[in-house]
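Exercise: predict the fold of this chain.
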Amino acid sequence: MICLLCHRQFTPSLDFRTFFKPERLCPNCMEARKKDPIAEVIPFTNGMIEYYYYTEEEEIDSITYSVRCHLIEKALEMAVCRQKEINFLLFLETDEMKMFKSWWPFLKWPGITIFFSIVRHDFSAGRNGSNF
């Protein structure tokens, strides 16, 4: 069988439970999807930012990115479960980081803001005056 994410061939383990509905992801992709994101807390004047990401690598290949994209599901689940306590939830990609300064006026409201990204973006430079 061919994995839906990484497109590598694998042999699914078949038993009575999975005989008519075999696994569609290889064991490596299944294991990668189980990993929880890394969490950081970034305090700022009016509140804090909870930042969740998967890897500190600056660039990842498309297969790794596909495996990690289930973070979107976790982000939406968190938004629904914590809707009364968070102000803003933003999924950060490279394009959003290029326009981050235009997002900042919306993020200055008091309370908790949540950022999600596949790769880690460094906000420490912005804490010295440009963004925070």
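Check your answer against the key: The chain has five helices and four strands.
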